[in-house]
């Protein structure tokens, strides 16, 4: 089976304050999300959230079942959401096929035993970005397109944060236990995401940055509001954001990012805002 699995322990704010650049990147940055003909998974012990990527090119890939999960199959006690950031692909879940195009999403509920990923065109492979969390209830699988999404326009060109938020896997669109996912697209000339920044004590989050132009980067900001840190990120990399940490970024160009969350509630608005002038 072509898979790569990594487990990362949770980190406290006190520990994060002492970390240098290398340690921050080692604990929070997921440098490689996609690799050819492989499923890559990173388990964070923050809410036991899994971040991953499946990139089938020359073969159909199976969703693996890492020993660390202690389960008969990956989704025995989990749910999973995914957004395709590559060419058109096909996901087969217990025999049911879903054709997932660029920037379309799919939710698979607890109890789905077999999941396979494949690309329609090997020259333009699918790239399925994956988020998974423990689940307590069985909800039906559902494909979500951008026309199904709840769309919100925020910010302005004046403050360089004019952006479109596509809420794809949220409780107003599809039933889930914990997992929520969406995609934020920054307009040309805007570079700031999620500003003003916030934390949410009852949820952790992960960001996946993509559509970053060649030779450009995004500086991701994290840490407690009064003790911030930063991680420079490249195209198609992800970062883990603990519940105690802000999660915001600014790029040297506009870009797109996928946010994924899990925790105690499904209230998208449950956040503690941080005034910009109070950040340190």
From TrEMBL:
GO biological processes: D-galacturonate catabolic process; D-glucuronate catabolic process; pectin catabolic process
Catalytic reaction annotation: 5-dehydro-4-deoxy-D-glucuronate = 3-deoxy-D-glycero-2,5-hexodiulosonate
Keywords associated with the record: Isomerase, Metal-binding, Zinc
Cofactor binding notes: Binds 1 zinc ion per subunit.
Pfam family of the protein (one): KduI
Record InterPro entries: KduI (IPR007045), KduI/IolB_isomerase (IPR021120), KduI_N (IPR027449), RmlC-like_jellyroll (IPR014710), RmlC_Cupin_sf (IPR011051)
Necessary cofactors: Zn(2+)
Pathway: Glycan metabolism; pectin degradation; 2-dehydro-3-deoxy-D-gluconate from pectin: step 4/5
Residues involved in Zn(2+) binding: 198, 200, 205, 247
GO molecular function: 4-deoxy-L-threo-5-hexosulose-uronate ketol-isomerase activity; zinc ion binding
EC id: 5.3.1.17
NCBIfam families given in the database record: PRK00924.1 (NF002091)
Homology family: Belongs to the KduI family.
Function statement: Catalyzes the isomerization of 5-dehydro-4-deoxy-D-glucuronate to 3-deoxy-D-glycero-2,5-hexodiulosonate.
Name of the protein this chain belongs to: 4-deoxy-L-threo-5-hexosulose-uronate ketol-isomerase
Organism: Flavobacterium rhamnosiphilum
Lineage: Bacteria, Pseudomonadati, Bacteroidota, Flavobacteriia, Flavobacteriales
GN (gene name): kduI
């Amino acid at each position: 089976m072509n898979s790569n699995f990594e487990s990362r322990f949770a980190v406290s704010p006190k520990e994060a304050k002492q970390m240098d650049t290398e340690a921050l990147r080692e604990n929070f940055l997921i440098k490689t999300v996609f690799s050819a003909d492989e499923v890559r998974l990173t388990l964070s012990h923050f809410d036991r959230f899994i971040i991953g990527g499946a990139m089938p090119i020359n073969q159909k890939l199976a969703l693996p079942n890492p020993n660390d999960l202690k389960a008969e199959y990956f989704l025995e006690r989990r749910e999973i959401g995914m957004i395709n950031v590559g060419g058109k692909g096909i996901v087969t879940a217990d025999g049911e096929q879903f054709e997932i195009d660029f920037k379309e999403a799919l939710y698979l509920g607890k109890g789905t035993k077999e999941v396979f990923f494949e690309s329609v065109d090997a020259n333009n492979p699918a790239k399925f970005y994956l988020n998974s969390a423990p689940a307590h209830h069985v909800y039906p699988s559902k494909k979500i397109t951008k026309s199904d999404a709840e769309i919100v326009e925020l910010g302005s060109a004046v403050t360089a944060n004019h952006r479109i938020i596509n809420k794809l896997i949220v409780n107003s669109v599809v039933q889930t236990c914990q997992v929520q996912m969406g995609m934020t697209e920054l307009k040309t000339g805007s570079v700031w995401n999620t500003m003003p920044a916030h934390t949410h004590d009852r949820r952790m989050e992960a960001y996946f940055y993509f559509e970053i132009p060649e030779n450009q980067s995004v500086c991701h900001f994290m840490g407690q509001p009064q003790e911030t840190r930063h991680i420079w990120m490249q195209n198609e990399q992800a970062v883990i954001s603990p519940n105690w940490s802000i999660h915001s970024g600014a790029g040297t160009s506009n870009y797109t990012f996928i946010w994924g969350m899990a925790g105690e509630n499904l209230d998208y608005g449950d956040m503690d805002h941080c005034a910009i002038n109070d950040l340190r």
